[in-house]
């Protein structure tokens, strides 16, 4: 079984982990890594390719001029400051 120093790993990742979480993770992480190791052993030289499948994306043969729609997009935005759309902050920063 794979041995993992979960406490050192958490410290490297700058994660605060309680003693209860450490005990649980010490059991779960080796099992997860063992599963990943099993998946990596699967033969990767066989590529499944079905006939008739192809990329359906069109080529971008005639791209529009950069900034062509900027004014329209800014007019449609609910809040704008300095030619940028203002959005609600979703990530907070620890101090």
Structural summary, described in words:
The structure is a single chain. The protein has 95 residues and is mostly helical. It has a domain at 6-40: Histone, subunit A (Orthogonal Bundle). Helices cover 38% and strands 4% of the residues. It has helices spanning 6-12, 19-40, 70-76; strands at residues 80-81, 84-85. Strands 1-2 form a two-stranded antiparallel ribbon. The protein is flat and about 60 Å long.
Please give the count of helices: 3
- Radius of gyration based on Cα positions: 25 Å
Lateral strand order in the biggest sheet: 1-2
Class of secondary structure makeup: mainly alpha
Helical percentage: 25-40%
CATH architecture of the domain at 6-40: Orthogonal Bundle
* CA-CA gap between termini: 39 Å
Uncertain spans: none
Short descriptors:
2 strands, 95 residues, single chain
Secondary structure: elements and pairs:
Layout: H1 6-12, H2 19-40, H3 70-76, E1 80-81, E2 84-85
Short summary of the structure?
It is built from three helices and two strands; from the N terminus they run αααββ.
